[in-house]
TrEMBL record:
It comes from the Bacteria. GO terms for molecular function: hexosyltransferase activity. Residues 10-143 form the Glycosyltransferase 2-like domain. Keywords: Transferase. It comes from Rhizobium laguerreae. The lineage of its organism: Bacteria, Pseudomonadati, Pseudomonadota, Alphaproteobacteria, Hyphomicrobiales. This is Glycosyl transferase family 2. Gene3D superfamilies: Spore Coat Polysaccharide Biosynthesis Protein SpsA, Chain A. It holds the Pfam family Glycos_transf_2.
Length: 358
């Protein structure tokens, strides 16, 4: 089977107790400029109004289908949706994240340039809070083609709501690993799948911030200790297969732990700090010393350059621009990134899409 010029894309939304955010996620999905979509909401044994909200929403957009399972975790919910999917491509999105209206269209343009459309597309993301306000963004890397080695060093895709992937290739890789949850290490299922796909498939980049990735205190990625355990379990078999990558992987583990430590410190999350601090001191003593010295040297170097430029009467150095995408501005709403789209480019209302499909 090969991808047609206008392939069906199945969007899989795992949802557990997601009544506060699910409708916003569904609206961002329904409003995609590419509308040959199948939208599957997989209720993962929710105990709130998630199922009823999804069912009611399906009455306004006939592309939406609601599935139900006993609570088994996000990996099993995604796998359930993938199994039921009819699309050539799968685009997962968590029930608290949102998309730019052009996400699927731009990703398809990128991935269909590969032979038979057999590849994966990804984009950058904006980090948003509970109210959809941007407070950060992913590092705008430019990795394309064979991205396996760079992905070992850094999970630059960064979340489970970004990629567009061929369904057949996901099934070939065994889908998302539900066993991580069973081992108390839920969190890196998406990274494990991306690495499995990257061993054999090319990746295409859409160089824009098209995913609104929501960070809340209750979501999975906020549990740093569990995420680090998950990362270690995912990387262990890769080190066994590719021992020459072990140094890069250990560096990635340290960088991931440092990121979580910094985030916990800035968020005044003392519970996380109490777990992370002793673990990092015992596991990475030499790396912490080297990292501290490197950070100190970088600060001294930057400060010296600023002083020298002022003494020579030169203006402050401007950062080098390597892409044309507009950097997400902290304090602005993610929806404002596309609120000013011209009418001819703006997505049609849901009601119009339903009428068009009748």
């Amino acid at each position: 089977m090969t991808a047609a010029a206008s392939p069906l894309v199945t969007i899989v939304i795992p949802a557990y107790n997601a009544e506060k955010t699910l409708v916003e996620t569904l609206r961002s999905v329904s409003a995609q400029s590419y509308d040959k979509l199948e939208i599957l909401v997989v209720d993962d044994g929710s105990r709130d109004g998630t199922f009823d909200l999804a069912r009611d929403y399906s009455l306004t957009d006939r592309r939406v289908r609601v599935l139900r399972q006993d609570n088994g975790g996000v990996a099993r919910a995604r796998n359930h949706g993938i199994k039921e999917a009819r699309g050539f491509y799968i685009a997962p999105v968590d029930a608290d994240d949102v998309w730019h209206p052009s996400k699927i269209e731009l990703q398809l343009e990128a991935v269909l340039k590969f032979p038979h459309g057999n590849g994966v597309a990804y984009n950058w993301y904006a980090a948003i809070d509970e109210n959809g306000i941007i407070f950060g963004h992913s590092r705008p890397v430019l990795h394309q083609g064979n991205i396996f080695e760079p992905l070992l060093r850094e999970n630059f895709i960064g979340n489970g709501s970004t990629p567009l992937m061929p369904r057949a290739e996901i099934l070939r890789c065994g889908g998302y690993d539900a066993g991580l949850r069973d081992n108390g290490a839920e969190g890196c299922e998406d990274l494990k799948l991306y690495l499995a796909l990257a061993e054999t498939l090319p990746f295409a980049l859409v160089p824009d911030f098209l995913t609104g990735y929501r960070f809340t205190k209750g979501n999975m990625s906020s549990n740093a200790y569990r995420m680090l355990k998950s990362h270690a379990l995912v990387m262990a078999p890769i080190i066994a297969r590719y021992p020459h990558f072990e140094r890069d992987i250990r560096t990635a583990e340290f960088n991931t732990a440092s990121w979580y430590f910094k985030k916990a410190f800035l968020d005044d999350d003392y519970a996380q700090l109490k777990k992370l601090a002793p673990m990092m001191v015992s596991k990475y003593p030499s790396r912490l010393v080297i990292h501290g010295m490197q950070q100190g040297w970088r600060q001294v170097k930057r400060h010296g350059i600023r002083i020298a430029r002022r003494a020579l009467g030169k203006p402050p150095a401007r950062p080098k621009t390597r892409f044309v995408a507009v950097i997400p501005q902290a304090g602005t709403a993610f929806r404002d990134r596309y609120a000013g789209m011209p009418a001819r480019e703006a997505p049609s209302p849901i009601a119009q899409r339903v009428a068009d499909n009748e």
